[in-house]
């Protein structure tokens, strides 16, 4: 099934079930009002939502209405955890090569992950509000999953069973703040502002063959200012699958229901696929020409991130955002 | 007023109001069931809880019962944000001096903060469950605040107005995992397992003169295996006050209600105050004798963290935990 959260002025919005073709939606009223509730009590609530989903797909849901992604908050407008990996090692290799630094051997066996802020996610069509253009605004197109409870010391295989939903993310990064921040040694903080997620989060059965071994074998498209810049394969080159990423968290703690885990920038060795973040394009330019040519995003720039199924239809809806100045 | 969360088998527990002397408590039923609800709608709910608090203090609350810290979850059993500072630069100076490294000048003007996991906090009397003693188990006694909504670009002074509640934290750290983790460049992750908080979170008016300039001017006591090891002043040497820490987060994003912000290990220049984490004791030993002598915690070790008012009474209740092996 496909789930979304509609804006209603509240902090957590209203849970809606969305038809497979994303044409119609239906409030989940009577089952659950918020997605977190469903994740907290999945085995009881998911079958009820699935029933509603089937009725909706059959055109028989009485109070269905046209689905409008612009009315969506992030599927989880706020979450108890947002842990983002950097699971496409090719991305790390490129960025490091551009600054003449080696990739440590452990990076191929031990996932890179950082803890992100999760109190204030932005909706798929909301502006990306940034205080200063000089921060070096970049998009990062990613795949993300929402988990069930997964206990401490779970294996990667056990962790795979703890994946409830899949969605897309725009993990906005402020590139010019990163060097100073990483030099301080405590990791990303100010350089990672609010993250946006796709209109719709979907269960694994919706993905069919495309979900294999904890990876999404589909093409992630990124369109910057109307120009298609990325057609990256999200599956085969993901060095660590989502079960491995979740198990990495579980080494020292429990992962609780509603945790969001990200893949990191989707990246392919074959540069003809384009890029899922500008930093990577700039790394390639630096490797080729000694310096980056492509500038980061400006206020007014747009970014669209989407995945299409074999039928050409959007699977998760599209993230479609504009960069805007903070006027506060 | 003083607020706590009682275990009831649910993920978020039941909100209780606790009397000033921590002797009695009363369910907040009819006002709010969870602390996050109160933080989401503070101006409406806090006055109602304050009324109940006064009735309770006057011994007139009809359904009052004896308060038992062992029944407590963390005041927020899970939160949308846990951002921990390292605001006592003396701690950083000691740790760096022990490894012959300088403290960069910017550390005195730009706070160090990391994003922590917030999906699975532990109660004040719950065991600290660790998978392996060899991880180098350490306690970290800290002061923490819970915030209201604070908008992007808020000043430190504005951010001070966004502090709703104060509590204590045991930011458990796995010291032997830290070097490799920091070397990866993405900051703390596996080295920071679940954090514990004091039984009670209190509003600023409860602290009287002890709350000044965004700092808690009280003595934080740490007792390890029954031996008092720390009597550290939490106020005067806090290099960055809580308004500055919150404003640091707000540089690039909004901080939303219910965010928890920590001080980092409380640390004093005068070593006679003792220590609020073992790593600091080991740093001092290394500076003095070339190598650390004190070992990290073992399974079965206990840690008690508390603050007493001028009247000798506990202000936040005590964190009182045992280190236990993960049996999963």
TrEMBL record, chains A, B:
The superkingdom of the source organism is: Bacteria
Question: Which key words tag this protein in UniProt?
Answer: Hydrolase
The GO terms this record gives for MF are: hydrolase activity
Domain named Fumarylacetoacetase-like C-terminal: which ranges? Answer: 82-321
Q: List residues of the Fumarylacetoacetase N-terminal domain.
A: 1-78
InterPro entries to which the protein is assigned, alphabetical:
FAA_hydro_N, Fumarylacetoacetase-like_C, Fumarylacetoacetase_C_sf
Where would one find coiled-coil regions in this protein?
none
Against SUPFAM superfamilies, the record matches this protein to:
FAH
Tell me which Gene3D superfamilies the record gives. Answer: Fumarylacetoacetase-like, C-terminal domain
Asked whether the UniProt record includes NADP among its keywords, one would answer no
Q: What is this protein called?
A: Fumarylacetoacetate hydrolase family protein
Organism equals: Polaromonas aquatica
The upper taxonomy is:
Bacteria, Pseudomonadati, Pseudomonadota, Betaproteobacteria, Burkholderiales
């Amino acid at each position: 099934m496909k789930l979304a959260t509609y804006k209603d002025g509240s902090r957590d919005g209203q849970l809606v079930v969305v038809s497979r073709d994303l044409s119609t939606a239906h409030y989940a009223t009577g089952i659950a009002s918020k997605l977190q509730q469903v994740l907290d009590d999945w085995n009881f609530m998911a079958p009820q939502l699935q029933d509603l989903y089937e009725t909706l797909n059959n055109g028989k849901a009485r109070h269905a209405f046209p689905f409008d992604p612009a009315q969506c908050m992030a599927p989880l407008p706020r979450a108890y955890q947002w842990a983002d990996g950097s699971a496409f090692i090719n991305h790390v290799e490129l960025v490091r090569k551009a600054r003449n630094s080696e990739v440590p051997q452990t990076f191929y066996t031990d996932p890179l992950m950082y803890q992100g802020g999760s109190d204030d996610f932005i909706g798929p069509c909301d502006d990306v509000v940034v205080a200063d253009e000089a921060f070096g605004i970049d998009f990062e197109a990613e795949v993300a999953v929402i988990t069930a409870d997964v206990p401490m010391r779970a294996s990667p295989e056990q962790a795979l069973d703890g994946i409830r939903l899949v969605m897309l993310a725009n993990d906005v990064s402020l590139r010019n703040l990163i060097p100073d921040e990483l030099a301080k040694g405590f990791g990303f903080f100010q350089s990672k502002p609010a993250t946006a997620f796709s209109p719709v989060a979907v269960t694994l059965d919706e993905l069919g063959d495309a979900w294999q071994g904890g990876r999404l074998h589909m093409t992630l498209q990124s369109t910057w200012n109307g120009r298609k810049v990325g057609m990256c394969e999200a599956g085969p080159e993901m060095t660590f699958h989502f079960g491995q990423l979740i198990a990495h968290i579980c080494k020292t703690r429990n992962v609780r229901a509603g945790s969001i885990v990200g893949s990191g920038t989707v990246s392919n060795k074959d540069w003809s696929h384009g890029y899922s973040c500008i930093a990577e394009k700039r790394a390639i330019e630096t490797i080729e020409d000694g310096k980056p040519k492509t500038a980061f995003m400006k206020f007014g720039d747009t970014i669209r991130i989407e995945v299409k199924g074999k039928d050409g239809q959007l699977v998760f809806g599209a993230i479609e955002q504009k960069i805007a100045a903070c006027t506060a």
